[in-house]
Fold this sequence. Notes:
The structure holds two protein chains of two kinds. Chain A is an alpha/beta fold. Chain A is built from 15 helices and 18 strands. In chain A, the strands form four sheets. In chain A, strands 8-14-13-15-16-12-17-18 form an eight-stranded mixed beta sheet, with helices on both faces. A six-stranded antiparallel β-barrel of chain A has the order 1-2-5-4-3-6. In chain A, strands 7-9 form a two-stranded antiparallel sheet. Chain B is built from five helices and four strands. The chains are: A alpha/beta, B alpha+beta. Strand 1 of chain A pairs antiparallel with strand 4 of chain B.
Amino acid sequence: MSTTKDFIVEQLKEEISGFKAEVSEKSVGKVLKVSDGIALVSGLAEAMMSEILIFKTEKGEINGVALNLEESQVGAIVLGDFTVIKEGDEVVATKRILEVPVGENMVGRVVNPLGEPLDGKGKIETTKFYPVEKIAPGVITRASVKEPVQTGIKAIDAMIPIGRGQRELIIGDRQLGKTAIAVDTIINQKGQNMKCVYVAIGQKESKVANIVTKLTEAGAMDYTTVVLAGASTPASLIYIAPYAGCAMAEYFLDKGEDVLIIYDDLSKHAVSYREISLLLRRPPGREAYPGDVFYLHSRLLERACKLNKDFGGGSITALPIIETQAGDLSAYIPTNVISITDGQIFLEPDLFYKGNRPAVNAGLSVSRVGSSAQIKAMKKVAGKMRLEAAQYRELAAFAQFGSDLDSETKKKLERGQRLYEIFKQDQYQPLSVAKQVLTYFALINGLMDDVPVERVREFEAGLYKYADLNDTVLKLIAEKKELDEEIEAGLKKLIGDYKVTVDYLIK
Amino acid sequence: MKISVSQYASALFDLVAGKSEKEAKAIIKNLVFTLDKNHDLGKADAISASFAELWNKEHGEVDAKLSSAREFSAATREMVVDYLKNKTGAKKIILETEVNPEIIGGFVLRYGSKVLDGSLKNSLNSLKNKISN
């Protein structure tokens, strides 16, 4: 044991002898005013925008960030407990822009927006730091979106496909399963060469704890970082949370990897920014949001990108979430973010309460760039399927008025009902593309027309089990990614074989 | 229109430039009268601080404060003044000294909005931070 003691003493001596206190000139200011997470500081004439400031209080040092540079004072947000800061306390400028630790060791951890661990698993060893605010990659560095992100959700992968590097908004009222879509997508990224970052912005900590548990159970924490700014976190930390999460994602982007980042949700982010802006006395605009609330989100979402080969070929796919009030899409923040993103997944209460979960409204949801990223097999079945869905919606509204329908219309309606049954999917049950192709193939080729509507889901579940046992065709789809004659024949045979084993078909 | 602190200060500076003490007294009296009329007497402290800053800038003067654990000799003080003259390009340094046993050893030099902290207390603190990390 004595060797360890000697070793430590030796080390300590070495450290101290090698220690040189550097005397350097520092800019200092004084706190003029503190209020709700905001501090006004005099002096600091050379302070930079979003520079880290250190408040020297009686109870230790607290970090802050300069946000307002004025003639004789600096407005700063306090990243920490602002109640211990007193008027007259000294503030030191650090000449460093706000940055967060990044690296491989962040994966699998739950951290706060400053990159400090919140999961009780000890210190995170990182050597690299990335700035929280960064200008998005320029035109020269970008490539068009061409690889798919498989969400594992049938309705989305077929109708609203998302590509790597895309920004797809998930929008809807509270409690309609917005987060569920995001979490299922993370779970489905297992083995898909994707790192994930989940940024919880102003969320209940109990909800985040649930999500982390689910992700751990599903083995998804092996490639996921959770950035948590809970509902009890000061507005200043909530404000920087999405930027910090994006900085952590950019580390992997620069390494040429693909990253999926989820901002849950940006409505609360806008609210936090409004709080900070009003406290900093910036003039309020519509709904009391400051004038630059559009830039707040556009500069964040613009950092999602697909880089071209010369720049590593990495990508950041962003799934921002917006919570609407009573389905009001024309409120300020929803319209802003809709216009920034490359499409939206719109969740509707009517569908949700009817039992169509995920409650994706196929008519209002769009994906502006994703269809070029779909695999060929999916493209082939999804194209026909989208047409079926649109026709069904039109006819269903029309058919409510009368019962005398010709057989063609009846057939379309029947198939549409089956299609909407197929769109139903349980939470935490993401599906592989091959299986999705199998289902849609069965539907559009009329192979499910003789399955009663109320037993479609049972049929579907059985079909997957059967396909798992005879998985040569599924493997072929995953390999070739297209539907050639051989695969089509294989699929038909597989479905036909399975149908022999069930006894509820309509004769 | 509201008149800002810096506007008052620069007006005062322009008015008193090159005036005798007696004339300056009358000007200041007038200023106080104006402040009262504009309900701006509360700004008086800020105006005098702003005026001092302006005066220092125009006349090349720098206010500095030197804290040490023990009294420094006149020669050392002279060195500090020379250092500041070189550093800031000022013509005149107004050095205030203070004995503060709390900093243990070394010195803390403040001038303008800058601090040069060469105190033992500061070094010990950074050593503590380094070891605890």
